[in-house]
Amino acid sequence: MISAIVVAAGKGKRMGLGFNKLYAKVNNKEIIAITLEKFEKSNYVDEIIAVVAKDEVDYFKINILDKYCFKKVKITEGGIERQNSVYNGLIACNNPEIVLIHDGARPNIDDDIIKRSIEAAKSFGATTVAVPVIDTIKIVEDGYSVETLERKKLYAIQTPQSFRYDLILKAHEYAIENNIIATDDTQLVEKIGYKVKIIEGSYENIKVTTPKDIILLNSLAATNL
Fold this sequence. Notes:
Elements lengths: L1 E7 L16 E2 L2 E2 H11 L5 E6 L4 H10 L6 E5 L4 H11 L5 E6 L7 H14 L1 E7 L5 E4 L2 E5 L6 E10 H13 L7 H7 L5 E4 L10 H13 L2
């Protein structure tokens, strides 16, 4: 059993849309529908857990789940923070061997990344896709550069982040017991002493954060037609 948790409970306030950015459209389809469709069509994924904000469950069911006739998708409610939402998604899984955790706002995921993520999780237990950082990165304090980091060692972390189910569930339970808050799931695994394997992602696997990202995704969609 391979499960995919698609996190869709955030509001995306930086988009300034006045509604959840995941319902904005790219190439005439909602961002979250595009993301879910990638996992729905994948032969490598058996079930999809869509983690949705409590006040959007009915809207999601009517306008996404029923509209696009998703068969693998089931809904669970999100929590206060992303970390809580992922944990709710883990609890809703049907005891899989491997679980992929993916941002609903990354609709440009492809089946090759899904396949390689699953294979790496089976081999290493914990993995994330990532891409080398292109820009020079500096540490800044009080408006001044105090250190330039070695670029060849820096990677921009993406999703999916993929794990043996027992391992990531243990990491989340440890975080709950010890009041640990992290920005992503790989950090929680690292907190229990486990190394995370980095595998190659894609610069096109962007996360929709600002209105410019919608323009870029529309451009990428037109290019790939």
